[in-house]
Specification:
Blueprint lengths: L11 E5 L4 H12 L3 E6 L2 H22 L6 E5 L5 H12 L7 E4 L15 H28 L4 E6 L12 H21 L4 E8 L8 H5 L1 H9 L9 H12 L10 E4 L6
Helix pairs in contact: 1-2, 1-8, 3-4, 4-5
């Protein structure tokens, strides 16, 4: 790490799913370490609130270091819309000299139904967002990173569900397994262009997606009983690992799947 803990000064990042949960926590971490960031989200109101909060972080960080605040912008985008994602990637690149980093954290939950009760369209929707959305995002970012030959770093947010199946989540499990293999495939294809691609597999993390499960005492007791550390992760804990993978400290890591689960899979 840089002596002042600002590994991303002068770098720009695109973060999808950046208006809440792990994506927002990652954007906070990157901004605190000096990055200019474009966050992508679907809800304009949540996106506006997130951008406002991130700009406050950028201003405080700049004041503490006697520098200009790194720019932060938001884009209301559906990650399954290829052209819209391209526009967001361009907006991110224009925040600085080029696009250096991409964190694809946008995703949706499964239907929590037995596979025999799971509709084909519901299954398709989860794969469309959780796999196709990652592919569209990573490809748009990689095209810009490769254009000048300087490369970059991409992190796909997958899940422990991509490594072990959870009952009644065939849609989500399959999508996250696809995210893991997508990261490995992209790592192979993009290595000669200087672009590293890794996947992070969080366990249960306190986010809007998991609130319903963790707020129910019986469900929470079952979940926490499976976690050796006895608690869910804070999004900032996942963001710390994502930031490491984006940094030069992880310069020899590509195609890796990093599990951050409190011991769930131990």
């Amino acid at each position: 790490m840089a002596a002042d803990g600002r590994r991303f000064v002068g770098r720009t990042a695109l973060v999808t799913g950046g208006s809440s949960g792990i994506g927002l926590a990652t954007a906070h971490r990157l901004v605190r370490e000096g990055a200019a960031v474009c966050i992508v989200g679907r809800d304009p109101a949540k996106l506006s609130d997130a951008v406002t909060a991130l700009r406050v972080v950028a201003a405080k960080t700049a004041e503490a270091h006697g520098t200009a605040a790194a720019p932060v912008v938001g884009a209301s985008v559906d990650v399954t819309d290829e052209e819209s994602v391209r526009v967001a990637a361009d907006a991110a690149a224009k925040l600085g000299r080029r696009l250096d980093l991409c964190v694809a954290a946008a995703g949706i939950d499964g239907a929590a139904r037995n596979a025999l009760d799971l509709g084909v369209e519901d299954f398709r929707t989860v794969l469309d967002v959780n796999v196709m959305g990652l592919f569209i995002t990573a490809r748009a970012a990689a095209a810009r990173m490769a254009a000048d030959g300087e490369g970059g770093a991409i992190v796909l947010v997958a899940s422990v569900n991509g490594l072990v199946a959870e009952p009644e989540f065939a849609d989500y499990n399959t999508s996250k397994g696809g995210a893991v293999m997508l990261a490995r495939s992209l790592a192979r294809d993009l290595a000669t262009r200087g672009i590293r691609v890794n996947a992070v597999c969080p366990g249960y993390t306190r986010t809007p997606m998991t609130d319903a499960y963790l707020s129910d005492p019986e469900t929470a007791a079952t979940i926490l009983g499976r976690i050796p550390l006895g608690r869910p992760a804070d999004p900032a804990e996942i963001a710390a690992v994502v930031a490491f993978l984006c940094s030069d400290e992880a310069s020899y890591m590509t195609g890796s799947t990093v599990v951050v689960d409190g011991g769930w899979l131990a």
